[in-house]
């Protein structure tokens, strides 16, 4: 890369893209090198990055919220880039978008082969998955797509707790989690192409602090994409109302009439969880809601969801959310206070 050429970054967007992601990325990346000197010394600096919005055909369109987008170029007109950011392209957790973006997927394959860094935000990772460049690698996207990735892209290790997954960085692939994870990806891109000092300065301008705790505190247990196994489905319905019972897995096995190993195998095939993981996830979800709104002690919350040993509850809760019960309560009750204007 010539020292006289600005690093070039393309933001790939579509009608299913969130305006907040697309324009947030564009605003911050375009300001790199220019805004910080202006705010500190009153003299604008030079823009350090060449940032362009691209789409399949380059024609104006409206993204989510009916927000107008005027791409700078069509993808077939762009052949040399340092990096590509595939913006989020919303799809239901039940609607696998294979075959929806054939031109974009082919372009990503070609650009990756030519040496470009390929990155994604949230559901944008689904395009990387379809292209095959993620096969054999770990990646992340919004936590709600965990089941979709596990079922339809089994060659990819899905890291639902990660906000920014750098596991495939050496192969020029970086994926970011939920939509606001574009903050973390942006800081990474600035540091990579302009240096850490510039990344820190830009983060100061836009008050970007990142998501150091990962996605786990925000994740919610989602329903499996499908469950055609009637025995397992009936056990799911029962445990939803009886998660705090003693020896819940044994009781589900009894209700199913299956042998233990058969039940475990069929349960995992139907839900993506082992039976005990499923019970623990249900209990944690209920505990999270109680911690967000109630004033019970963490020990009482643990007891209410089926853990009489406070130490066990704290350990399992932290493993599932990345935070202790006390830290989780502090984080989300603070959000509640902000919402109420306190």
TrEMBL record:
PROSITE patterns: HTH_ARAC_FAMILY_2. Residues 233-331 form the HTH araC/xylS-type domain. It comes from the Bacteria. Keywords: Transcription, Transcription regulation. Pfam families: DJ-1_PfpI (PF01965), HTH_18 (PF12833). The keyword DNA-binding does not apply. GO terms for molecular function: DNA-binding transcription factor activity; sequence-specific DNA binding. InterPro entries: Class_I_gatase-like, DJ-1/PfpI, Homeodomain-like_sf, HTH_AraC, INH-QAR. Transmembrane segments: none annotated. SUPFAM superfamilies: Class I glutamine amidotransferase-like, Homeodomain-like. This is HTH araC/xylS-type domain-containing protein. It comes from Ruegeria profundi.
């Amino acid at each position: 890369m010539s020292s006289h050429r600005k690093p070039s970054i393309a933001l790939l967007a579509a009608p299913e893209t969130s305006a907040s992601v697309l324009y947030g990325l564009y605003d911050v990346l375009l300001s790199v090198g220019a805004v910080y000197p202006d705010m500190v010394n009153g003299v604008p600096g030079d823009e350090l990055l060449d940032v362009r919005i691209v789409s399949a055909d380059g024609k104006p369109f409206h993204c989510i919220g009916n927000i107008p987008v005027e791409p700078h170029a069509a993808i077939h007109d762009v052949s040399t880039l340092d990096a590509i950011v595939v913006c989020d392209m919303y799809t239901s957790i039940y609607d696998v978008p294979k075959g929806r973006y054939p031109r974009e997927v082919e372009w990503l394959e070609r650009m990756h082969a030519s040496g470009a860094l390929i990155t994604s935000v949230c559901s944008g990772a689904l395009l990387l998955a379809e292209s095959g460049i993620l096969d054999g690698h770990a990646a992340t996207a919004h936590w709600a797509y965990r089941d979709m990735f596990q079922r339809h892209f089994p060659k990819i290790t899905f890291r639902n707790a990660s906000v920014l997954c750098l596991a495939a960085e050496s192969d020029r692939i970086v994926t970011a989690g939920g939509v606001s994870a574009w903050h973390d990806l942006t800081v990474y891109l600035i540091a990579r192409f302009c240096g850490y000092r510039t990344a820190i300065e830009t983060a100061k301008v836009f008050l970007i602090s990142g998501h150091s705790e990962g996605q786990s505190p925000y994740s919610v247990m989602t329903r499996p994409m499908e469950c055609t196994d009637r025995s397992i489905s009936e056990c799911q319905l029962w445990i939803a109302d009886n998660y705090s019972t003693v020896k819940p897995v044994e009781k589900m096995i009894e209700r199913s009439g299956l042998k233990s190993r058969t039940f475990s195998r069929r349960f995992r095939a139907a839900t993506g969880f082992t039976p005990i993981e499923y019970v623990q996830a249900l209990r944690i979800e209920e505990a999270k809601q109680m911690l967000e709104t109630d004033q019970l002690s963490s020990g009482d919350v643990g007891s209410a969801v089926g853990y009489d040993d406070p130490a066990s509850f704290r350990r399992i809760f932290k493993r599932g959310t990345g935070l202790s019960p006390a830290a989780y309560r502090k984080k989300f009750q603070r959000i509640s206070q902000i919402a109420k204007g306190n």
